[in-house]
Amino acid sequence: MSTYVQAIESQQQANEKAKQSTVLSPRFYTTDFNAMDRISVEAFRSEWDVMMREYEGDNNHDHFQRDEKFGPEAEAAMANLSPEMRQEFIDFLVGSLTSEFSGCILYNEIRKHVDNPDIKQLMTFMARDESRHAGFINQSLRDFNLGIDLGDLKRTKKYTFFKPKYIYYATYLSEKIGYARYITIFRQLEKHPEKRFHPIFRWFERWCNDEFRHGESFALIMRSNPSLLRGLNVWWIRFFLLAVYATMYVRDHTRPMLHEAMGLDSTAYDFQVFRVTNEITKQVFPVALDIENPAFKAGLDRLFEISQANDRAKEQGGLMGKLTQAVCGIKAVAAFTSLFFMPVLKQNISPEVRLAPTW
């Protein structure tokens, strides 16, 4: 299988990779702060107050500290990784850091620009968590002498404007699928510790519980404002479900060695994550993607093939390369549209708005 993971050999290249704004790279967002300020959670006040107490309890305040084994384990990991595997792992770390830091920036910006005490308090807690996550990943990148300048990244990376409801849908899904990804990796390596090729994976269980709680926060916001889950907004839910799933699938299949090293198959891993996420999203979304339909996987494979062809065209360069990239863009839109209009699964929203991370 031909893959196109951009080589990262220097700190400058790592920082440039983090700044990229592509279809597959994590983005930085801004939103309508005045509209965010008007959000009410009164419909689920008791559940909201319980969750705020959980955040305030900060059960992970001492979790993101590297123990005495981390240094030797990390050094051994670096020595044992093949050049190709090293690149896939670094790509994973840079992408994960950028995603975590994206949340930190967005939540901090909302916190600074709203007066709503509920939203301000939530964003303070979530920014705290995401800052820890990003900082912890950056420590591992520094072990490769590839640390990211987070201050420069905040100043220079392109920002995308999203309406508040798009933030709710996309961030809810990102947090929940982040949980499903991390817990699936953690459970696999818990069963097969010999395949834990880097110590950072030992931190994933409690880490992903932060992600789970973040998703719970947005579930409460959406359930408190049910118009977000009805009418034409259901089409936006379908769009973000597909966008998040398709992006994950294509991105993961560009670095298959990363999963193979853990004893995972990229396709099987992704569909396990989709199943967990589909089950979780019953708490808030009235529809789910029919991931077991063979046409769904076929469509994702088509998007991956187009992505690979687009990367080859970029390497080719010149007029023909640009023309090929344009054709790939048209094909990608057609493939995504075909997936978007596939029948979805209608589901009854769970009467329990809060879930526990039991997977």
Structural commentary:
- With 359 residues, the chain is an all-alpha fold.
- Helix content is 67%, strand content 3%.
- It has 14 helices and four strands.
- Strands 1-2 form a two-stranded parallel sheet. The protein has a two-stranded antiparallel sheet with strand order 3-4.
- Helix 1 packs across helix 5, helix 10 packs antiparallel against helix 12 and helix 13 runs antiparallel to helix 14.
- The longest helix is centred in the N-terminal third of the chain and has 31 residues, at 83-113.
- The radius of gyration is 20 Å and the shape is globular.
- The two termini are 31 Å apart.
- Total number of β-strand segments? 4
The secondary-structure class comes to mainly alpha
Radius of gyration: 20 Å
- The amount of helix comes to 55-70%
- Looking at the structure, the CATH topology is Ribonucleotide Reductase, subunit A
Order of helices and strands: HEHHHHHHEHHHHHEHHE
Mind telling me which CATH architecture this is? Orthogonal Bundle
Looking across the biggest beta sheet, what order are the strands in?
1-2
* Shape label: globular
Q: Could you report the average pLDDT, rounded to the nearest whole number? A: 92
Highest-level CATH class: Mainly Alpha
Tell me the count of domains. Answer: 1
Instruction: Summarize the biggest pleated sheet.
Output: 2 strands, parallel
Unreliably modeled segments:
none
- Hey, roughly how much beta strand do the residues contain? under 5%
Distance between the termini: 31 Å
Question: What is the number of helices?
Answer: 14
